[in-house]
Design brief:
Elements lengths: L11 H15 L4 E7 L5 H11 L4 E6 L10 H7 L11 H10 L10 H18 L2 E6 L6 H13 L5 E8 L12 E3 L5 H11 L6 H11 L3 H8 L3 H6 L10 H11 L3 H12 L5 H10 L8 H5 L3 E3 L3 E3 L2 H9 L3 H14 L6 H10 L6 H18 L1 H13 L4 H18 L2 H14 L3 H19 L3 H13 L4 H18 L9 H10 L9 H15 L1 H16 L5 H17 L3 H18 L2 H17 L3 H18 L6 H10 L2 H18 L2 H18 L2 H11 L6 H16 L3 H14 L6 H13 L3 H16 L4 H17 L3 H18 L2 H13 L9 H4 L4 H11 L4 H8 L3 H15 L7 H4 L14
Parallel strand pairs: 1-4, 1-5, 2-3, 3-4
Antiparallel strand pairs: 6-7
Helix pairs in contact: 1-2, 4-5, 5-6, 7-8, 7-9, 11-15, 12-15, 12-16, 13-16, 16-17, 17-18, 18-19, 19-20, 20-21, 20-22, 21-22, 22-23, 23-24, 24-25, 24-26, 25-26, 26-27, 26-28, 27-28, 28-29, 28-30, 29-30, 30-31, 30-32, 32-34, 33-34, 34-35, 34-36, 34-42, 35-36, 36-37, 36-38, 38-39, 39-40, 40-41, ...
Length: about 900
């Protein structure tokens, strides 16, 4: 499956052209453009980009459907139906023609010219109220009547404020759309194609393989995305055999290749077997097979292959077909030739890979060479390459015990690379070959880890706890590491864990396990601290957790340990309410996972790191990390709640969108047995309703989120529950939550913990005592990078001051809170702050993060000129647009800024785009 990509790579000239056409239409003109190019070249992406950029426009979209080719006016109906409320503005004959054409009434077949005029009039009427963008995708599949009429309309648009853009595959429909300006799309430039591949495949890319793929696809974005999902090992290290595919085009190429002379077929097979496209290696190996340079001529004449400084196939399908056209014996022969042609001193990994591909029966010498090369290959291609080498090594190993050992190592590498199915397949073989209790226990361990990474349900903690107990008499060091894995799995299962795998059971088991004989390494300190956190509370665990976090942030922890346990270390820092350590651990975990190509740890690291970004108020960074997280999850098949997505919904404060999505997320987490995901969903719901002032709903969600003991995650839910319960009149619930919060925040030297504790106490206090606690909360949290919590504290303090009739003092805190919420995109809380400001007598317009950047450059310019006293005629004369267009722009400005007249522009205009602060309050 191709990865989902949200960013548009390259296409700067094409984007500039589309922006230019939008600018023309904003000025009152009309414009028409046809995008032409092959399938997958990016036409639809450019239409989507145009729709996103069309701020202030009405956007009408039509997609040609092949199955509707024989239905007259089908596409035209797609375009016009949403505008039919405007039909009364058309002359009666045109109204009748449209009604008949669309089957609303019966009658004689309408004159196409009249229908065309009616469509033109309807679009002009719609554009008179709001500029109009019409996007027609897959125009090659438009029914003939619609295609003719849309071409008719396109050629007659002049000054109606309509932009019409067609997207047409190849040269189809060129005759129908002849005479209309055309923008022909070619493949992406090499730099942009490389960026797209890097975006689609979140791991290290082998440069030679990347360049070959870009050349063979011609920079076609869809082809690049499809190939990015076909094989981690090839993309990351260049170690993979060509996929032997199927399909009409693939089979066509196979038949063409089999019709070539034998020497040419053999040369094509040799070229296909080397993923790097190394021409020097090709000719060296060809010489050993008795192939001469002229063997390439028939393939070049058929435009299947070009050999210059590099070897390039016409298309990746040709490479696959060339490999498929060879027999099994022929494939082994060419791999052996390539292995012999490679220099063992300079490229030992490539040599042993080809040697292994030439070997079918078990061969211990080759298997050992593969195992030795696996570690070196990781530095070149990442963990996916290591997995590929180890898996092949296991297949070629004759001794069952050694084969099981190598299969276990390969399964571990596949797990880190996100290859969960491959890992489980290897574990089945390892289980059959295992000799002794230790190997069998390690199979149990790896199966539990794989299940946890892939599905994160309630089965994983039970399996890992069982494996830890089984390992304890066999390998104490590994057993204690497994207890830590079981603790993490049990935390994720949360309140949905089975009784024999819940967090208390796992924590008690871990604390009762024998200590390691050689002193506690950082992993042991981490295990002891986290287990103690659950069994005895924060105060008892704090010192051990601090030692563990310090050790992991120091230099004494191996990189593999940090990669494996980065999330529980981050949870330890969160338990200490140490934001700086939480951020540092999370950042390092993401960086290490990226650099190693370990996609499974990267998915978890990104999930956690997004929440850190949100807590410091960096919403754009959280969104970018979310895009990366989604791509990694698509590549690995990971099924787990995205905590950043849930909190982002709560931040944005749009109930109509958020409530059903949060409910769906809760249902999905329940089905997966992911109790932590369910708890995060409840926390997000509580936060959403707090921002909206729905305190009863926030209390109900907060009670669910605070149930049980999930360590720092339960602790984080309690301040919200205190606030919601106080505001909804549930004082007893608030006081109980306050008692629990006091216990959870019993850590030294944390302004975060002390600030939230003070804020919560203030909510339960009155008079001078409340003011003292609010003041402390603001001072403590202002000293951190926790922008969201700081702004919430100022909001609550301002609300309290207003209710104490201290309006002037309240305004300062409320203004600061409002501006911070708007800047962070926390629209629900921003609206709550706005209402409080209005109650103090302050003038403040309704603003959300979305409206800050909604003014187009022209709208911004017109608004500022109007603010400075220019008339519509003066503005139009200076900007070369009509006074009517100026008036239209000003109406849009007023709507976006929530004002009614020019007199309000002085206060309402936002700062210019390069200003750092946002929000405007009079």
């Amino acid at each position: 499956m191709a990865a989902r990509i949200t960013a548009l790579h390259g296409r700067s000239a094409e984007r500039d052209r589309l922006e230019s056409e939008l600018h023309r239409v904003r000025g009152g003109d009309s414009a028409v453009l046809v995008l032409r190019g092959e399938a997958g070249i990016g036409k639809t992406s450019l239409l989507e980009y145009l729709a996103e950029r069309a701020t202030g426009f009405r956007v009408a979209q039509v997609t040609g459907i092949e199955s509707e080719l024989e239905l007259p006016f089908a596409a035209l109906h797609q375009l016009c139906a949403p505008m039919f409320d405007l039909i009364e503005a058309l002359p009666e004959p045109q109204q009748q023609a449209l009604h008949v054409a669309f089957g609303h009434v019966s009658g004689a077949a309408p004159d196409k010219f009249v229908v065309g005029l009616a469509v033109l009039g309807l679009l002009a009427e719609a554009a008179s109220k709001q500029p109009l963008v019409c996007l027609i995708d897959d125009a090659q599949w438009l029914d003939e009547a619609s295609a003719q009429l849309l071409g008719f309309v396109a050629r007659r648009l002049l000054a109606e404020s309509v932009l019409m853009v067609f997207a047409v595959r190849e040269l189809a429909a060129e005759k129908l759309l002849a005479g209309i300006p055309t923008l022909r799309l070619e493949g992406l430039a090499d730099e942009d194609a490389a960026a797209l591949l890097a975006d689609a495949f979140p791991g290290r890319l082998d440069r030679r393989v990347r360049d070959r793929i870009i050349a063979e696809t011609g920079g076609n974005p869809l082809a690049l995305l499809e190939l990015s999902g076909q094989g981690k090992a090839e993309l990351m290290g260049g170690f993979a055999l060509p996929a032997v595919g199927s399909g009409t085009l693939h089979d066509h190429y196979v038949h063409r290749i089999r019709a070539l002379p034998e020497a040419t077929r053999r040369l094509l097979l040799l070229a296909a077997a080397d993923p790097a496209g190394d021409a020097t290696l090709l000719w060296r190996a060809a010489q050993s097979l008795g192939l001469q340079p002229d063997a390439a001529t028939p393939a070049e004449e058929e435009h299947l292959l070009w050999v210059g400084s590099q070897v390039r196939f016409r298309h990746p399908l040709v490479r696959s077909a060339a490999y498929a056209a060879g027999s099994v014996d022929d494939r082994r022969t060419v791999h052996a030739a390539l292995a012999a042609a490679l220099d063992a001193d300079t490229e030992p990994e490539r040599q042993v890979w080809h040697l292994a591909a030439a070997t079918t029966a078990p061969d211990d010498e080759v298997a050992a060479a593969l195992a030795d090369a696996a570690g070196r290959a990781e530095s070149r291609g990442g963990v996916a390459t290591t997995a590929s080498f180890l898996q092949r090594s296991a297949v070629l190993t004759s001794d069952p015990g050694l084969r099981a050992e190598r299969a276990l190592a390969a399964a571990r590498a596949h797990l880190d690379a996100g290859g969960y199915d491959a890992a489980l397949t290897l574990l089945a073989g390892a289980e059959a070959d295992a000799v002794g209790d230790l190997q069998r226990a390690r199979v149990d361990l790896m199966r539990g880890l794989t299940e946890r990474a892939a599905r994160s349900g309630r089965e994983a903690p039970v399996a890992l706890l069982r494996a830890a107990r089984r390992l304890e008499p066999l390998d104490l060091r590994l057993a204690r590491d497994t207890y830590l894995d079981a603790w993490g799995a049990s935390l994720v299962a949360g309140g949905l864990a089975y009784d024999d795998g819940d967090l208390t059971t796992v924590s008690n088991a871990a604390r009762s396990a024998r200590p390691a004989p050689d002193g506690p390494p950082p992993g042991d300190e981490l295990l002891e601290g986290l287990a103690t956190l659950v069994t005895d509370g924060t105060a008892a665990a704090a010192a051990g957790l601090r030692r563990a976090v310090t050790s992991f942030l120091g230099a004494e922890v191996p990189a593999d340990d940090f990669l494996h346990w980065g999330v529980p270390v981050a949870n330890a820092a969160l338990s200490l309410w140490d934001f700086e350590a939480w951020d540092s651990v999370s950042t390092r975990h993401v960086d290490m996972a990226r650099s190693s190509g370990a996609l499974a740890p990267l998915a978890n690291a990104l999930n956690a790191h997004r929440v850190v970004a949100l807590w410091r108020g960096d919403v754009e960074r959280a969104r970018d990390l979310g895009d990366e997280e989604q791509r990694v999850k698509e590549v690995t098949g990971t099924r787990r709640a995205s905590y950043g997505d849930l909190f982002l919904l709560a931040y944005q404060g749009h109930a109509a969108e958020a409530v059903p999505l949060l409910a769906a997320a809760a249902d999905e987490a329940t089905v997966r047995g992911e109790g932590l995901g369910l708890q995060i969903t409840d926390r997000a719901a509580a936060l959403l309703h707090l921002g909206l002032g729905h305190y009863s709903e926030a209390t109900a969600a907060g009670i669910r989120a605070a149930k049980g003991n999930l360590g720092p995650f339960t602790a984080q839910a309690l301040p919200d529950l205190v606030e919601a319960a106080v505001r909804s009149g549930a004082t007893a619930t608030a006081e109980e939550a306050m008692d629990r919060l006091t216990s959870y925040t019993d850590v030294p030297d944390s302004d975060w913990a002390a600030g939230l504790r003070a804020r919560s106490r203030a909510l339960l206090s009155h008079g001078e005592e409340a003011e003292r606690w609010y003041t402390e909360a603001v001072e403590r949290l202002d000293g951190t990078r926790l922008r969201f919590e700081s702004a919430r504290s100022r909001l609550l303090f301002g609300e309290w001051l207003r209710r104490e009739r201290r309006r002037a003092e309240a305004r300062g805190h409320l203004k600061d809170a409002f501006e911070e919420f708007v800047a962070m995109g926390a629209d629900g809380f921003a609206e709550r702050a706005r209402h409080e400001l209005l109650a103090t007598g302050e003038k403040v317009r309704r603003r959300t993060s979305d409206t800050l950047n909604d003014l187009t450059p022209q709208e911004d310019q017109i608004a500022r000129m109007a603010r400075d006293g220019r008339t519509n005629l003066e503005i139009g004369g200076e900007l070369y647009i009509s006074a009517r267009t100026v008036e239209w722009h000003l109406r849009k400005v007023f709507g976006k800024l929530g004002i009614n007249s020019r007199r309000e522009l002085g206060q309402a205009l936002p700062p210019r785009r390069d200003d750092r602060r946002v929000g405007a309050i009079g």
